[in-house]
Amino acid sequence: MNRNDVTEKIIAAKVSKGITWEEVARRIGQSKEWTTALCLGQMTANAEQARALGEVFGLGEEEQKWLKVVPYKGSLPTEVPTDPLIYRWYEIVNVYGSTIKELIHEEFGDGIMSAIDFSMDITREPDPKGDRVKVVLSGKFLPYKTY
Amino acid sequence: MNRNDVTEKIIAAKVSKGITWEEVARRIGQSKEWTTALCLGQMTANAEQARALGEVFGLGEEEQKWLKVVPYKGSLPTEVPTDPLIYRWYEIVNVYGSTIKELIHEEFGDGIMSAIDFSMDITREPDPKGDRVKVVLSGKFLPYKTY
Amino acid sequence: MNRNDVTEKIIAAKVSKGITWEEVARRIGQSKEWTTALCLGQMTANAEQARALGEVFGLGEEEQKWLKVVPYKGSLPTEVPTDPLIYRWYEIVNVYGSTIKELIHEEFGDGIMSAIDFSMDITREPDPKGDRVKVVLSGKFLPYKTY
Amino acid sequence: MNRNDVTEKIIAAKVSKGITWEEVARRIGQSKEWTTALCLGQMTANAEQARALGEVFGLGEEEQKWLKVVPYKGSLPTEVPTDPLIYRWYEIVNVYGSTIKELIHEEFGDGIMSAIDFSMDITREPDPKGDRVKVVLSGKFLPYKTY
Amino acid sequence: MNRNDVTEKIIAAKVSKGITWEEVARRIGQSKEWTTALCLGQMTANAEQARALGEVFGLGEEEQKWLKVVPYKGSLPTEVPTDPLIYRWYEIVNVYGSTIKELIHEEFGDGIMSAIDFSMDITREPDPKGDRVKVVLSGKFLPYKTY
Amino acid sequence: MNRNDVTEKIIAAKVSKGITWEEVARRIGQSKEWTTALCLGQMTANAEQARALGEVFGLGEEEQKWLKVVPYKGSLPTEVPTDPLIYRWYEIVNVYGSTIKELIHEEFGDGIMSAIDFSMDITREPDPKGDRVKVVLSGKFLPYKTY
Amino acid sequence: MNRNDVTEKIIAAKVSKGITWEEVARRIGQSKEWTTALCLGQMTANAEQARALGEVFGLGEEEQKWLKVVPYKGSLPTEVPTDPLIYRWYEIVNVYGSTIKELIHEEFGDGIMSAIDFSMDITREPDPKGDRVKVVLSGKFLPYKTY
Amino acid sequence: MNRNDVTEKIIAAKVSKGITWEEVARRIGQSKEWTTALCLGQMTANAEQARALGEVFGLGEEEQKWLKVVPYKGSLPTEVPTDPLIYRWYEIVNVYGSTIKELIHEEFGDGIMSAIDFSMDITREPDPKGDRVKVVLSGKFLPYKTY
Amino acid sequence: MNRNDVTEKIIAAKVSKGITWEEVARRIGQSKEWTTALCLGQMTANAEQARALGEVFGLGEEEQKWLKVVPYKGSLPTEVPTDPLIYRWYEIVNVYGSTIKELIHEEFGDGIMSAIDFSMDITREPDPKGDRVKVVLSGKFLPYKTY
Amino acid sequence: MNRNDVTEKIIAAKVSKGITWEEVARRIGQSKEWTTALCLGQMTANAEQARALGEVFGLGEEEQKWLKVVPYKGSLPTEVPTDPLIYRWYEIVNVYGSTIKELIHEEFGDGIMSAIDFSMDITREPDPKGDRVKVVLSGKFLPYKTY
């Protein structure tokens, strides 16, 4: 057994039971973004969260242990994602990547926006011309240090 | 001459003159995000914007014409970006890609978040533990249609 | 179980029963193009369509549930397809890609032809020198917006 | 000098003179699709077409000779195109590739749709919900032969 | 079950029974080249050929059905083949590719040599300095059409 | 200066002068296949051949010297060729590669068909249904030796 | 002019003048590790450092400006480095990567060792069996946060 | 059974039993770095170490034999690692690779830092601004020899 | 069953029985180099050798048959090998490849060193500064022929 | 100027002057293998060797300085070499790589054959059936150490 087996079991259980990620998140007491990432094998649960997920998805003790092990991260099967929804994000990085770089450096100087001390919030933005997906990303700025 | 030559000339002129993208944006009358993408060869100017950029960066008439031609987009030299700041975004797509997909589908059903009918806003979020980069992405949801 | 298992079961059942995609489409009440894409794991069924497919291919309840889950799309095993029929399409993109880009921009300006708000129609075009495959693609034009 | 130099000169001349591909096509007496592909270095001109293009774009005799040489075809700089408009076509091949294959085989048997004995027609399809790009592809069906 | 399973079963049965491809071809009434390609999952059998192969290799009815389904073609596991015999062919394409292109265009003009309306004949060419492999390839010339 | 410069000069001179490869071959006294490969930078000339090519294409002494240096071989810009004519050969290797391997081993045992002790002959095969390209490849069989 | 031109000029000037990186670092008042990375186009200088480098390497005002622009980072020409010294580091990541991951997680929990808030120190470690290279890496631990 | 099976069994046993690598190392009498690499299938055990690991993880005799066989090394599933922690190391090689090369050559001349006669030590470096990961690498310098 | 299964069974049996390749070679009556390559699925056995290997490793009749089938060659899982020992050989090809090419051409003219009519001998070369691996490669020179 | 420029100048001078690598090696007083690698930009000269090469090839003082700088090594333009002579070596690594690994480990235990403390000797081996290329490689065995 490995973390991947647990992830697959969670996904299959979710389809079978018809629960939403939002409900799962409420059970865990975390945001739906972090909770989904945890369930998809990208984050690490503490004891309580593992137990809660175990109840939600019917996971045994061994499976819950795996949720507490730091996983080998990376959730996409190819370097350039083939799924259209995920590809659009890759396209944003490709088309706007140099723009993002320029503007963060203009505001903050040399460094990066952390993808670790990081949070994400995905919501529906109602719009008469068609609703929009609004995503707020917040990452700590980390300056390169000289030494 | 091609669009790439114009982009390189703009970048060199910006370094030489020491202007910021924010100032350029004010001259164009658009957001700093869209303006920077335009200057970096990813967007298309109208006649007035091309003229304004010509003044800011000292571009000739031929060069301004190129700004009005739709460019071949894509601003990164490799499939997986090597620059740490841009890579963090690729990492977000890699680690959170499946999460983003799940949550948008949970809220909207099958479809994508547009990268065309799309806007981006990058700001500084003051934080006592270290300021953060806040990025708001807004893209129209486009449902797959059946036929 | 996952969507891929359901796709493989559908394909095997189709070979075994000897039905055509056109017949399947009639049962679903959709075009043969969209129906085939659904059966091959690229589209998402509603409840009625899932039930209809369940009957056609002998799928259990759990399998029908998977048809209603948005799939991870992408139906080709390699970046450059090896199958000659599919490769010809990749070749069209490669040889005519810049032509398509120029002509759409000439007519519509900067933007894209949607692959989401999109339909396809494949028919036989009788021709004394040898029948032809006629494919009509229709995608909404989406302009890049300035902001 | 090589064909690529001629292509670049044609593109630069087109930007400078502000002519459309449609006008160029009228001068050549061919469709705008084939003419654009010719100008972008993918097709081969006959003597008359080369002369006409020479006039339109101000090409010398040596340059016209290159238009009559069969080019090394392929108009994209990367295996997976980065430009969003062209990528959407790659995505169509990726998402619908297996569907296209199934339906052509269902109608015609084993073989391919030719990308050589092939024509393409791109037009605007007015639509109250937003105009659409309509592309008609027509390729001769070539059956695999047994021997 | 899929075509690949049938191919593997055929190969294993061939090793076990010790028959040659030439014998199989005689049973099918086709050339040894086409027959081998069929057995290796690259071509499509008609009803009679499927039945004959079923007898030769002990295939059940379901397996015979798969032989009549057009396969996803491509018989090599990597882009650049690692097997020395097959690599030599890739090398011929690499070293002589531009030569082949020049000479076919010199004789026929712009177009291709079909790999679909195509046959191949492999024979032993006795030679006192060491026997040679003689391969005759014959493919219909398909001219690019203007439109 | 390097061999590549000489190759480019030869190609440009050929376009400019309008000579055919067949005529060049007659001047060299070798087959058109080998001569073209030589001119395209894949083979090595002896003193006499270099002199003859020098006359045909107007090459100086330094350039003729380069024709006598063994070149770094490989005439294609990408692993999978994008040019349709050359791609068809790659496709033949991909679709028929395992067939070629099986049949050569069936006839000769373990070993390869040499791509060095090798010759190629490309001719037009008249056919009422459309002329065909006939290519005869002849390579010495080299058995793996045990030791 | 771009940063790459400045980097190449610095490298050529260093060879020509025969200075060591250690001497350059003393002039800048930073460690030799950070200074070398700056000169090789990976870090960003402040005004004083740019002026000092200008003196050391004879750089003009425009060139000094480029040193103050945040560069597009990444100093290797291929994904897997071909240079043996640098490859050994890639090999360490490949062979010990999972070990490093396990031990950092065992000590710190889920998170990463920063490559931004990071310093490196390279020294000679005398050893009778052959001197050793000692490299000390120090990176802040950044925990994944839950939200 | 192969080494990979043994590695997977060790990892699963470790999760199940909740032991740390440090405890395992104490049982083996080696550093935690080398021991972890051994358990993850990168190093080779002697008889005693294999027996000790057998006890710790409940491995049978056959499994212990595999620990004594030199493994095919390399612990990462992709050329560019997707896991953020391991990627940071790849980034260090990418950003600082040329710096490391310059400084080792400046001190030692042409040669490499061995990744075989090599040791690694990972410790926690307490820091009021947030603890740091300190990694000491020590590799013998191997000079290129002339001959 | 296929050749790969037989290879894996041989490797597992070798670990289990603790025999050396040298002993296996003696049983086959061939060099240890060729014998190992045979056992690792790269060469083809004759009837007697297959029988001998069957005895050594406890292979059944079906498995022995597979040893007599010419295998699909290539023993490495990635284009650039990750295993340090094998990578060193790839590095030799990378660093010395152009040198090897120059010197063989200087001595022999245009052609190659055969990897088919080829043998290899690996021995220990005692050396007071540390024993060395001595590898002697011998391959027939094959000249390119003109035609 | 950089090392690559010097390498190209050396190669062009060698063609122009018609000297052999063996003569160059005599002038340097080193083996022809090491000398060729030096001239092709893979090794580092001392002062005397640089001066000698300067005389042989007519290199100026600045160019000689570059010969004394440790180069970024790697002499091949692609991961899998396209040149047939060099490819045969890649094929040897591919086909015999696992064999080489097994036999070195059988004789020496875990470790590698050094590609740094390494020498190579290429000679002609006369043979009535066709002369052979004999290559002797000698590399120090470096054991993995435990710690």
Structure notes:
Ten copies of one chain form a homodecamer. The first copy, chain A, has about 150 residues and is an alpha+beta fold. The first copy, chain A, has two domains: about 5-65, 434 Repressor (Amino-terminal Domain) (Orthogonal Bundle); about 85-145, Cyanate lyase, C-terminal domain (Cyanate Lyase, Chain: A, domain 2, 2-Layer Sandwich). The first copy, chain A, contains six helices and two strands, in the order H-H-H-H-H-H-E-E. Chain A has helices at about 5-15, 20-30, 30-40, 45-55, 60-65, 85-110, and strands at about 110-125, 130-145. In chain A, strands 1-2 form a two-stranded antiparallel sheet. In chain A, helix 2 (about 20-30) crosses helix 3 and helix 4 packs across helix 5 (about 60-65). The longest helix of chain A is centred in the middle third of the chain and has 25 residues, at about 85-110. The mean pLDDT of chain A is about 95. The interface of B and D includes residues 2 and 66 of B.
